[in-house]
Specification:
The protein is an all-alpha fold. It is built from four helices and no strands.
């Protein structure tokens, strides 16, 4: 006979928390992107043929903008859901990240990916109505710039995933330690950042 603790139980998903977290992440990502454009850290439509052209302030805005935006998204998803266990809260943060990806792709496809940051411009492909160049005509610098843009977009997306999981963990209110607790199902007294 299977013990009650060993049964597989489904984890229910609060879609209102997930969508609220996804919208919060997109909003803060746009704020970081527009702030970077305002201070001159990002330039719309700029393609980097070499990582040496990528300035330090652009890198800082790209890394922290992506990470902190999804930390907020994961935190909002966990708080709106009301998840008090770290595992459930991190799951909601990761699902909020998953829901955000199609929104970022749509914005990048419409030409607004540059407003989200320098790295998200690599998600946009040329629109189908634009004249397509044959691969033999393209220069090596254009191919290198496309590769660097794709690498930057991949890095930004993975940083976002890590940020959403960390944000969900913070939203749960459980202590942020990596060792296994002997009592993993306790109810914490309050969430991170919550006044007592």
């Amino acid at each position: 006979m299977i013990d009650s603790d060993e049964r597989l139980l489904p984890w229910f998903v609060s879609w209102s928390g997930v969508f609220a977290g996804a919208l919060a992440a997109l909003a803060l990502l746009l704020v970081f992107g527009l702030a970077a454009i305002a201070v001159g850290a990002h330039q719309i439509g700029q393609h980097f043929a070499s990582w040496h052209e990528f300035r330090l302030i652009t890198l800082a805005f790209s890394v922290f903008g992506s990470f902190l935006s999804f930390v907020l998204g994961g935190w909002v998803a966990a708080r709106v859901t009301g998840a008090r266990r770290a595992e459930t809260a991190m799951l909601h943060g990761a699902i909020a990240w998953l829901v955000t990806i199609p929104g970022i792709l749509v914005l990048a496809g419409l030409g607004a990916g540059g407003y989200l940051g320098a790295w998200y411009g690599g998600l946009a492909a040329p629109p189908p109505w634009a004249p397509q160049a044959t691969p033999m005509v393209e220069s090596a610098a254009a191919a290198l710039a496309a590769r660097n843009a794709a690498l930057g977009a991949l890095t930004a997306l993975l940083l976002g995933l890590v940020g959403s999981v960390v944000g969900g963990w913070m939203g749960s209110g459980e202590r942020m330690t990596l060792h296994r607790s002997k009592n993993p199902h306790r109810q914490p007294s309050g969430a991170w950042g919550e006044a007592r």
